[in-house]
Structures are given as structure tokens and as C-alpha cells.
Amino acid sequence: MDLQIKGKKAIMAGGSAGMGRATAERLAEAGADLVITARREERLLNAAKEISEQYGTSVTPVVADSSKEEGRQALFKACPDPDILAITIKPPAPNGDFLKVTPEMWRDSVETALIAPIEIMRHYIPGMKERGFGRIVNIATFSAKNPMIWRLMSGPARSALINYTASVSREVAQYGVCINNILPGMFATEGASELLLTYADAFGLEPKEDVAMNHFLENNKIPAGFVADAADMAPMAALLCSPLSRFIVGQNIVIDGGQHHSLF
Ligand SMILES: NC(=O)c1ccc[n+]([C@@H]2O[C@H](COP(=O)([O-])OP(=O)(O)OC[C@H]3O[C@@H](n4cnc5c(N)ncnc54)[C@H](OP(=O)(O)O)[C@@H]3O)[C@@H](O)[C@H]2O)c1
């Protein structure tokens, strides 16, 4: 299928690893010119080089923390007029006892998982409206719809994000700008490996990734029977970035192997 994005300018904010990188690869494969961001420079530069060499498209790396105004300004300068904007960002680590969650932890969560993507969207939406085309995809989390006691630093802020995009997407769809969210379940990414160690710590388990993963799987049955690869969500992200998705507006697409029990 031709995604019809050859030559379009695309941003993958958070594109050096995991689902962000997998999405960047699908966009590059379809011929988009990319700007990818991340906080850690070495991995970002390697990712940009590898993606560019593999798919023969332009990939510009920008070291930028999306949760900081300074980082967002660096992105805005590097790419003032994208056609496509995909955003992912790492919220604070899993909390342990919910009674120990402090106001500072909430502020960090909201600043990162809610205000950061909103500020990036708020900056780019006027230009997209003016040009009559835009695609925005947030890679958030299924815990936005499926609350988890150990993901209080991720789920609630993302529930607010999908509430925000539900409203804004209906406002801007008439200008050719479509905003949708992907809500991933359990994916074996670089970020998940880091997260599992803090998960183990929060739940007093042996600080080993496999111990935490087994504990997690026992407590969260995945009907598909496996933990996914980042590549399992990227085709959906790429489709939502395409002109072909012009009638998909304000949706939250859960990709979790059936783990989330809900009709909608
Ligand atoms: N993996 C899972 O099982 C899972 C489950 C549910 C939800 N999610 C959500 O899905 C999203 C992607 O997760 P993932 O597992 O693919 O993560 P990942 O492997 O850590 O990749 C995240 C990418 O985003 C970048 N990034 C993170 N925070 C950033 C920031 N503040 N500013 C700029 N770039 C940033 C990372 O690079 P740097 O670290 O160098 O900045 C990396 O390139 C996250 O929002 C996560 O909460 C993941």
C-alpha cells in the first residue's frame, strides 16, 4: 500500500528507540523526510544514521527534551512546518505504594505526559490548519483507558491527554488536520527494559528484568500470549500519519494483544 507520504515532512519526537524508532522507520520507508528527537545524543545520532542509510531518506537528529520548553524550541527551530507529527515521551517511573505519591511526582507526570505533547501540538496546529493538511499521532499508553495501580505516573496524565485530543481533533478536522492516539500495551522495547527494573524496585522484587517481567505477565494476562515488538505497532502509526486516514478523527487505538477488556 502506498501511504502517499513521499516527500512529506515528518517529526518523530522521541524517535531514537522503541516504538518511536519503529514508527520513524515506517515513515522513512514510505519516503517521508524526517526529524527525530530524543534526550540521549549518542543513541539518537546512531538511529538517524541507520534509518537514513537503510531507507535512503533524510533523517535529521535533534537532541531535545520534549518536556522542557528549551527542548521544544530546539525542535520548532529544526522543523517549523511539518506535515506529520508523531510524539512519544517517557513519563516518570512506576510508583510503588500509591500513598507515597507526592505532589512533586504528580507535577513531573503532568509536565511530561500531558503538557509536553499539548505544547508541541499547540505550536504546530495553526500552520497545519493554514496549509490544509496535518496528521498528529500520540503514542501514549493503554493505561489511559485501563487504569493500573503501579502506573499512576503515566495513566492519569494520558487520560487527560486523550480527553484533550478528543475535543481538539473535532475542532481541527475541518481543516484537514487529524489527531489520533495509539494506546500501547506491553511491548519489549529499550524503555520497557528500563521500566521493568524500576517496576521490580517499586514492588520489592529481585532487581532483574526477567523476574519483573514474569511477575508482570502473571498479573496481566495477554490473550495473544506474547509481549509485542515495537514493529507490531508501527504500521498503525504510519497509517494514521497518511493522507489515507483522513476520516479517522479523535480515536484511541489500543494495541495490546487483547489485554484490555472493553467494548470501546
Ligand atoms: N513499552 C511498553 O510496554 C509500553 C507500555 C505502555 C505504554 N508505553 C508508552 O509508549 C511510549 C513509547 O515507549 P517505548 O517503550 O517505545 O519507550 P523507549 O524504548 O524508551 O523509547 C522512547 C523514545 O522516546 C525518547 N524520549 C523519551 N522521553 C523523551 C523526552 N522527554 N523528550 C524527547 N524524547 C524522549 C527516547 O529517547 P531518550 O530516552 O534518549 O530521550 C526514545 O527515543 C511511551 O510513552 C511509553 O510510556 C510503553
From TrEMBL:
Read off the PANTHER family from this record: 3-OXOACYL-(ACYL-CARRIER-PROTEIN) REDUCTASE (PTHR42879), NADPH-DEPENDENT REDUCTASE BACG (PTHR42879:SF6)
Q: Which InterPro entries match?
A: NAD(P)-bd_dom_sf (IPR036291), SDR (IPR050259), SDR_fam (IPR002347)
Look up and give the organism this protein is from. Pseudohalioglobus sediminis
Q: Out of the domains of life, which is the source? A: Bacteria
Family statement drawn from the similarity comment of this UniProt entry: Belongs to the short-chain dehydrogenases/reductases (SDR) family.
Coiled-coil annotated spans: none
The protein here is known as SDR family oxidoreductase
